[in-house]
Request: fold
Amino acid sequence: MKKYVLPFAVLLAIAPVACGAALPPVTPGAQWEMAKPDDCGFDAEKLAKLADLIRERKMGTTGLMVVVGGRQIYAYGDVAEVSYIASCRKSVLSMLYGKYVRNGTIKLTETVGELGIDDVGGLLPSEKRATVRDIISARSGCYHPAANIGGRVKGLPRGKTAPGTKFVYNNWDFNVAGTIFEMRTGKSIYDVFEADIARPLQLQDWDRSKHKRTGDASKSIHLAYHFNLSTRDMARLGELMLRKGKWGDKQVIPADWVEESLRPVSTFTAGGGYGYMWWRDVDDKFPDAFKGAFAAHGMYGQRITVLPALDMVIAHKSARNGKHPTKSSDYRDLVRAIIAARN
Reply:
């Protein structure tokens, strides 16, 4: 694939502290291009110490990849190992939504009732008033049990929260977002991912045969759409979002959808927010580096962190899941150590 190089004036505007003029951003080809950390403004010796931090904290990290300007400058563990990405799947679905929202196939203003969606035991009239936009921003007000564990709806009464008024991280919402996608497109999430993202981005470790929707249908008919990806392929997804949906000369995701999906619908008192299945990230120690930052979060330490101010993507995996989880606080310190490695 032909490499895509931004004009230097554009580079300065979007990545003022990233690689220097000798290494303008590139689009990854079939294999990741490697770069020396020093050539991208990072201290190689400081990055090498990340392994010590991982071991000292017993972080359970099985794969870590740091990308600057579209080039790999650091890797730890087996970045080709394929495993469960947990709730990062939701951010992946958000990426798929863009094309079909923009061409009118999916309408964000359409309600659950208008779509004819129901569930085990029936949905309440108020729950059927939730829009697609409410669903993908975790503000549906529907606290029906989900087909898979996760979310924060235990103990919340149904029918008491008006749709669109309150953020509640809820797997029922996310699973229904998958149902809506397949209902409106007439296609499997995994088939669309393969055609719209995996092939254009040349994902190195994608295997369609290992993917199907799963869950307990006795609790909810809307099953989860789990993904199994490698660390290096997760980094490609982050790189695509960093480039506002463009991969080389191809606009894979509409640029305005990337911007809209990252715009916080919910904001939090501690900082940051939540858009359309993407988290907005902040850090009081490195506020400049985190300007415009966003992330996909998954249980046990699955992460895609994008720092536009540094032209950087960080992908992290803990493939052993619950046996060796990576605590959020430890991952935060790992990201801080990466930022602190700048020259």
Observations:
- The chain has eleven helices and twelve strands.
- Residues 12 and 121 are 56 Å apart (CA to CA).
